[in-house]
Amino acid sequence: MKGIFTALLTPFDSNYSINEKSLEKLVRFNLDSGVHGFYVGGSTGESMLMSKEERKRIFALVKEYSQGSVPLIAHVGAISTSDACDMALEAKKLGYDAVSAVAPFYYSFPVEAVKNYYLDIVRCADMPMFIYNFPSGNGFGLTADIAKDIFACDSRFAGVKHTSTDLFALRQFKQEIEGITVFNGYDEICLAGLSMGADGAIGSTYNFMGSRFVKLYEAFAAGDIEQAQKLQNEACEIISVMCRYGVFQCEKEMLSLMGIEMGPCRKPFLPLSEEGKKSMKNLADII
Ligand code: MN9
């Protein structure tokens, strides 16, 4: 697995229920834009604000809508090992290609507990596993030493989704763990991640600008750094504005303007401000 993977958003209707029609459109739109795979039910998909049953439903819908055309990674991370295992079993049953999980959070679990959590999931899922490293989101930072220790326990550990600006750590994962696949996690440093050895990138802004990042990925692979930088720099300008008003809310607004009704983010996310909506309108004209 490599290339540009969209971390799929979850469209909701005005009652905050999953909007299945829009999800189908979103999957189709992304396939048309050429992305190489989907990361389903991650942070971007608001999975932490959804029930286990809803998360499983999303897995099933995306599997159905994408019709086997690209690899699918199911994010099953949860605070509880048994919930994560339960969702991993479902992903396996549905024919997903891999699972991924953020470290368990809230109780500041010691490293040994985090390690056991990952081992439990990979054993019950019996499929390739990508550790989701998101230190600023959940307080647990994966180091190359910890990763090496975990990966040595089971050959089904496939890689890391590295949502961190620490690109030295990304390099160390690649350097110290043979055969590992690393996905860059912050879209605003996609090119930097690739240049440090990332095999691809998983991100939220690919929902609406997947084709731009596919071009960036291809330009980088072809050694056209100038073109890759141009595409990254323009993307950074767009992402800067989105960060100001709330990334997921802005992405949903942008897609709604593009014709895919995405609805609001679930509470406690704030609704997008009027100023944010205006900015998205202006951006939509130049994207
Ligand atoms: O999945 C996303 N990570 C989070 C990756 O949202 C935590 C990124 O795509 C960011 O949304 C994006 C904006 O900061 O890079």
Notes on the structure:
Helix 8 (190-195) links the parallel strand 7 and strand 8. The chain is 52% helix and 13% strand. The two termini are 28 Å apart. It has 287 residues and is of the alpha/beta class. It has an eight-stranded parallel β-barrel, surrounded by five helices. It has helices spanning 20-32, 52-66, 81-94, 111-125, 135-138, 144-153, 167-176, 190-195, 206-221, 225-245, 247-257, 274-286; strands spanning 3-7, 37-40, 72-75, 98-102, 129-133, 157-162, 181-184, 200-203. The chain has one domain: Aldolase class I (TIM Barrel), CATH 3.20.20.70. 2-(acetylamino)-2-deoxy-D-mannose binds next to strand 8.
Order of helices and strands: EHEHEHEHEHHEHEHEHHHH
Low-confidence stretches: none
Strand order of the largest sheet: 1-2-3-4-5-6-7-8
Task: Please bin the fraction of helical residues.
Answer: 40-55%
Rg, alpha carbons: 18 Å
Structural class, judged by helices and strands? Answer: alpha/beta
CATH architecture tag = Alpha-Beta Barrel
Brief overview:
This protein is of the alpha/beta class. The protein contains 12 helices and 8 strands.
How is the secondary structure organized here?
Layout: E1 3-7, H1 20-32, E2 37-40, H2 52-66, E3 72-75, H3 81-94, E4 98-102, H4 111-125, E5 129-133, H5 135-138, H6 144-153, E6 157-162, H7 167-176, E7 181-184, H8 190-195, E8 200-203, H9 206-221, H10 225-245, H11 247-257, H12 274-286
Parallel strand pairs: 1-2, 1-8, 2-3, 3-4, 4-5, 5-6, 6-7, 7-8
The structure holds 2-(acetylamino)-2-deoxy-D-mannose.
